[in-house]
């Protein structure tokens, strides 16, 4: 158990996954119940492996599925599988043990950052309600995020400042232009030497 706790505290997901898999195999060999199904499901989710989480749930015995925290971890997986942002963030608000809570907090951080990138890339204007559901934030949390991201709130909508995204696109175009110039120069050299 101490290795599992150390992996959780360090957020060493690859080690946690390996330890959970070993524990599952050892338990199966000894006709015992998987000792860490919640950590195992959460490690699969943190590793962005929804298929592993689903197959793990299918092979868990009823005793594991009866555990409230394991069911809560499965609810997170289901919400992610169904692309239900609101359901995911609501499920994450469950009461968790200290270690599972540490993993869930990291998972929420990852999913919220991904949702922010999605909103920045996909919207120039989004309703507060939809943004709140997508990002798993209440009104005050959403207002704080808008300030940090330099988004403007106007008449119940968020106006996304795509300056950063546009700057990335401009940099990409500049790189393409410089590469095109280099290729043109090389072509001219080849033509003049032949």
UniProtKB/TrEMBL annotation:
It holds the Pfam family CSN8_PSD8_EIF3K. Its main location: cytoplasm. It is found in: Cytoplasm; Nucleus. Residues 40-167 form the CSN8/PSMD8/EIF3K domain. Keywords: Cytoplasm, Nucleus, Signalosome. The keyword Nucleus applies. Coiled coil: none annotated. The keyword Nucleus applies. Gene3D superfamilies: 1.25.40.990. InterPro entries: COP9_CSN8, CSN8_PSD8_EIF3K. It comes from the Eukaryota. GO terms for cellular component: COP9 signalosome; cytoplasm. GO terms for biological process: COP9 signalosome assembly; protein deneddylation. This is COP9 signalosome complex subunit 8.
């Amino acid at each position: 158990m101490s290795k599992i706790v150390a992996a959780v505290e360090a957020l060493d997901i690859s080690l946690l996954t390996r330890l959970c898999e070993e524990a599952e195999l050892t338990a199966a060999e000894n006709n015992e119940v998987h000792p860490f199904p919640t950590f195992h499901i959460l490690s699969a989710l943190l590793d962005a492996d929804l298929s592993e989480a689903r197959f793990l749930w299918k092979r868990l015995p009823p005793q594991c599925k009866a555990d409230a925290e394991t069911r809560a971890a499965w609810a997170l997986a289901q919400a992610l599988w169904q692309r239900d942002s609101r359901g995911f963030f609501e499920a994450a608000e469950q009461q968790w043990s200290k270690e599972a809570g540490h993993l869930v907090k990291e998972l929420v951080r990852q999913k919220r950052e991904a949702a922010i990138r999605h909103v920045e890339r996909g919207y120039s204007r989004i309703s507060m309600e939809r943004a709140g559901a997508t990002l798993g934030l209440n009104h005050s949390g959403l207002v704080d995020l808008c300030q940090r991201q330099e988004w403007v709130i106007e008449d119940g909508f968020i106006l996304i400042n795509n300056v950063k995204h546009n700057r990335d696109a401009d940099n990409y175009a500049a790189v393409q232009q410089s590469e095109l110039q280099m290729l043109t120069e090389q072509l001219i050299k080849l033509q003049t030497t032949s």
